[in-house]
Design goal:
Layout: E1 8-11, E2 17-20, H1 28-36, E3 40-47, E4 50-55, H2 67-73, E5 81-86, E6 92-93, H3 97-105, E7 117-118, H4 120-132
């Protein structure tokens, strides 16, 4: 049996899905804001202890529809989405492993495979390239 990981689940606006390692050099809030590109807004999922976070100004900034995250949340979402858990004190934690496993079992294709965890900087490069067609 594998050791559970402590990753966030990130879905680009174009549907690329990543397990992303939390960064030790920034707070969980900064981590979420970096991925979504600004201030975060919580979108309840209430499945296996996970919720989704997106850019709260995504519609005003004309971000593209995130169909994959929208289906998971049953709510129209735009831009990159991050799925996380909660620490019981109002803060976030990495995404519950049961949530990621359930989605992968239902066909969610994780970039690099089910067990690959991406560094934040590497995931951001691929997400940016996927969104703009330009590699940063």
């Amino acid at each position: 049996m594998q050791t559970p990981k402590n990753d966030y689940l990130v879905i680009s606006q174009d549907g690329l899905c990543f397990r992303v390692k939390p960064s030790e050099d920034i707070s969980n809030l900064e981590f979420l804001q970096t991925i979504v590109g600004g201030l975060i807004e919580r979108v309840p999922v209430q499945l296996d202890g996970a919720d989704c976070f997106v850019n709260e100004e995504g519609l005003m900034k004309d971000f593209g529809h995130n169909i994959t995250a929208s289906i998971i949340c049953n709510h129209l979402l735009v831009g990159p989405a991050v799925f996380a858990g909660f620490d019981g004190e109002g803060g976030t934690t990495p995404c519950p492993e049961t949530f990621i496993t359930k989605l992968a079992d239902q066909g969610l294709a994780l970039q690099g495979g089910r067990d690959h965890s991406w560094e934040l900087k590497d995931a951001l490069k691929v997400i940016e390239e996927d969104t703009t067609g330009e590699y940063v």
